[in-house]
Design goal:
This protein is an alpha+beta fold and about 800 residues long. Helix content is about 15%, strand content about 30%. Strands 1, 2, 3, 5, 12, 13, 16, 18, 19, 21, 22 and 23 form a 12-stranded mixed beta sheet that branches. Strands 24, 25, 26, 27, 33, 34, 37, 39, 40, 42, 43 and 44 form a 12-stranded mixed beta sheet that branches. The N terminus is likely disordered.
């Protein structure tokens, strides 16, 4: 957190206040405050002359944080206005903070279990039954509903937030920011550094909270800890100094559950709250509701945890400042109120002592009619003082790098936590900066691109000026060619193929090849399944659509220097693909039409089925490369857009011809992320001339030593190497590491893939045959990168 440069001498002469636990962030988080927030989110340091408990001018504001509605995964028909209204009118709260999942907030649909019921499903197609067009602008509409609910006459403030949802790392709420982000696009699912980079730049006006630590992860039935996945628990709460200012809290309560203390929720012995503090984070205690998923949920009800904020006034500005100062605490019993000081200094403050005099601890709990157990908790989760009743007074010897918080129990159950007070807080050491990867090789350079995006020329979208006005449909709003290239450029892509169905106008449209991005001409041919014809700017004759006609089309494309690709063969399958029985796939030609490449990775298609189909081709002796494509079409339903995933090609130079040449040679690798957020290729290498070089698409000798590594030093995960249709190895690839293995003794092929999850994920029902127009398989969602084959000859 940012520390105010505060220096004051206490009356006893033993304490010098060097900093409140206050980032002192600029308190504007809404659009109306934009003029007051300039280049930096830091306010001018202020001097403090006296220690504070709850200052006379501070109010104890109680409110609900972490609410959901049908705008994300809440019950169908609910909207943010409902939880703001419930907190204000039904439960007389002072504030409510929203936190819709950003994984859903950029889509017009509701994502709730009720939507699996065919009777309910139609109501999930639009998340806002009151203002249907607001389903297309949930983020802005959420802010408008928060402002509409804010009412000084009712002493109520509504404010907007979002839930950053990585089921690998963990969930984080960000409040007050003008922008939002999601781990699928900012790279946070691969490495927390990338989320913190976003938070401290684009999201610098936001304040963030670690949510329900230890829960809601990809570990499934396994017991989770950092040994099962390096990413678990935000990489075990790896400290990122630059983000410390803005990471203001941790949910010690969520709903009615205790997340602050062990046992439970995969917590270490000291509990998650103490664990985060020991790691160096300056976080306070948050009580969150996390409600709205079920119709029986009562937003703001007294049965759920709350956060009490010590603010000067009940305004969004003052609540934000108080949260930045860690001037808040968490209560499960909504009637409780806490006073907690160390030598007269209140929650959130950082104090310095020379150690000559003991620390005076004073804690008082108000609002309980039954006996309480008060515990003073310090480093390592150790209880250093305790008392029964409503008051705790103690005298302790000061030590360096010490923190203290108050935990209140009733009959052994935690019912309240204070935010900490830090004593002689030392400067934390940050994680070393990851080395930059080198994308150049002796054979050229890895270029990043997307081979499957659509523009206004596709038949499935609507664009004003391109389509007839009678077809206007905001839910099918397309994206023009120039905007597609601008999007690709902003994501660090080197090339882009706009492949509209049966239309090549994009190749010569305004903006094609702009923003420093190479244009790869081509189109999508809808025959018995979808295929891409790349490298041509005119439609080729597909004849009568027979296998013979499509093979001739493919040969014509090759003769023109182009590529023929089978697209997303695992899309919308209703039967499991097994035994190379291609009749279960949406590609209707089985193995009768030979491709140059297969689009294995497409967000709407089963990766595993497409991989197996590719392997069947390889087992037949064909040399076929794999690619990935975002298949981005509409503006609102597919907001991730170009580069998710990214296809990398090892090209001899930066030209469209070299990209197509690399595709023909099979020198490809696919990553889940584009370069701008850390995406890099996974490579298979062999030693040539005394050093390792990529051999993807090339021949290697039987028994030759090979290695696999990611060119992203922050990427880790489970590495699987497949050889001749069998798993050759499956082991953990460490960050900035490499795994060596021996090529099979038998001729054939080898490819590699890197994923975040475990093998149990591909056994879930959602990874089986299911035709819902989207890929819901967590195994596929955990894929990080994959390579085209190396051939053993």
């Amino acid at each position: 957190m940012r520390i105010r440069a505060l220096f004051a001498t206490a009356a006893a002469g033993t304490l010098v206040l060097i900093g409140a636990a206050s980032p002192a962030l600029a308190t504007s988080g809404s659009a109306d405050d934009a003029q007051t927030e300039k280049a930096s989110a830091v306010t001018t340091p202020q001097a403090v002359t006296t220690p504070q408990t709850k200052a006379p001018h501070e109010r104890e504001l109680i409110g609900a944080l972490h609410e959901h509605s049908g705008y994300s995964d809440g019950w169908p028909g609910s909207r943010p206005a409902d939880y703001f209204g419930s907190g204000r009118d039904k439960h007389d709260l002072n504030f409510v903070g929203s936190s819709e999942h950003t994984s859903n907030v950029n889509s017009p649909f509701t994502f709730n279990e009720e939507c699996l019921d065919p009777r309910v499903a139609p109501s999930c197609q639009n998340a806002d039954p009151v203002n249907p067009l607001d389903a297309l602008r949930k983020w802005d509409a959420e802010l408008e509903q928060a402002k509409a609910a804010t009412d000084p006459a009712k002493d109520f403030v509504g404010f907007r937030g979002f839930e950053w949802t990585s089921d690998r790392m963990g969930h984080i709420n960000v409040y007050f920011s003008r922008e939002n982000s999601l781990p699928e696009t900012d790279g946070g699912t691969i490495a927390m550094d990338r989320f913190y980079d976003w938070l401290t730049t684009t999201g610098k006006d936001g304040l963030a909270v670690f949510n329900h630590p230890g829960d809601k992860t990809l570990c499934g039935p396994l017991k989770c800890d950092v040994r099962s996945d390096l990413g678990f628990g935000w990489e075990d709460f790896k400290y990122f100094p630059k983000a410390d200012d803005q990471m203001v809290g941790i949910e010690v309560f969520n709903g009615g559950s205790d997340f602050g203390s062990a046992p439970g929720h995969n917590a270490p012995p000291e509990g998650w709250y103490a664990h985060a503090l020991d790691k160096g984070w300056h976080v306070g205690a948050i009580g969150a509701e996390d409600k709205g998923h079920d119709r029986t949920d009562d937003w703001g009800g007294s049965q759920y945890a709350k956060t009490v904020v010590l603010a000067k006034a009940n305004t969004e500005k003052d609540i934000k400042r108080a949260m930045a100062d860690r001037r808040f605490y968490a209560v499960l019993d909504n009637a409780l109120r806490l006073d907690f000081t160390v030598d007269g200094h209140g929650m959130g403050e950082r104090i310095h002592t020379n150690g000559k005099s003991p620390l005076a601890i004073d804690a008082h709990v108000r609002g309980s009619s039954t006996p309480l157990q008060l515990e003073l908790v310090s480093n390592g989760g150790q209880v250093v003082a305790s008392a029964t009743g409503d008051q705790l007074n103690a005298s302790l010897k000061a030590a360096d790098d010490t923190w203290y918080f108050l935990r209140v129990r009733r009959d052994g159950r935690s019912v309240a936590y204070s935010s900490p007070i830090w004593v002689n807080d030392g400067k934390q050491v940050g994680a070393p900066k990851a080395p930059e990867s080198d994308l150049s090789t002796t054979d050229g350079r890895w270029l990043a691109g997307d081979l499957n995006v659509h523009s206004c020329f596709s038949s499935d979208v609507y664009c004003a000026g391109t389509d007839d006005a009678s077809e206007a449909d905001p839910f099918r709003q397309g994206v023009d060619v120039r905007s597609r290239f601008a999007e690709a450029g902003s994501r660090g892509l080197d090339y882009l193929a706009v492949t509209d169905d049966g239309d090549v106008r994009s190749a010569n449209a305004p903006g094609s090849g702009s923003h420093g991005v190479l244009a790869i001409p081509g189109y999508e041919d809808k025959v018995k399944g979808d295929a891409h014809v790349l490298g041509v700017d005119k439609l080729l004759d597909n004849g009568d659509g027979s296998a013979a006609a499509i093979n001739k089309l493919a040969d014509d494309a090759r003769a023109k220097g182009g590529i023929f690709q089978i697209d997303h063969p695992g899309s919308k399958i209703t039967k499991k693909f097994a035994g190379c029985d291609a009749s279960t796939l949406t590609w209707g030609y089985g193995f009768d039409v030979r491709p140059d490449t297969i689009e294995v990775w497409n967000p709407s298609s089963s990766i595993r089925a497409a991989e197996d189909y590719l392997d069947c081709w390889l087992q037949r002796g064909a040399r076929v490369a794999l690619t990935g494509g975002s298949d981005a079409q509409t503006k609102v339903a597919q907001p991730q857009g170009a580069g998710y995933p990214t296809t990398w090609v090892l090209a001899r130079n930066r030209s469209a011809g070299a990209v197509l040449e690399a595709l023909r040679a099979g020198r490809t690798s696919v990553s889940s992320l584009p370069p701008a957020v850390g995406g890099r290729p996974l490579v298979i290498e062999a030693k040539r001339g005394g050093h390792f070089v990529s051999v993807i698409g090339d021949d290697v000798r039987p028994g030759e030593t090979l290695r696999v590594r990611s060119l992203d030093a922050l990427t880790d995960g489970s590495l699987r190497v497949v050889a001749n249709g069998q798993t050759l190895l499956d082991q953990h690839l460490t960050r900035d590491g490499a795994i060596e293995f021996t090529a099979p003794a038998q001729p054939g092929w080898v490819r590699a893939e890197l994923r975040l999850g475990n093998d149990l994920l591909e056994q879930t029902p959602l990874c089986g045959p299911i035709d819902v127009g989207a890929n819901l398989c967590p195994y596929d969602a955990a894929m990080v990168a994959m390579t085209s084959p190396v051939y053993v000859r």
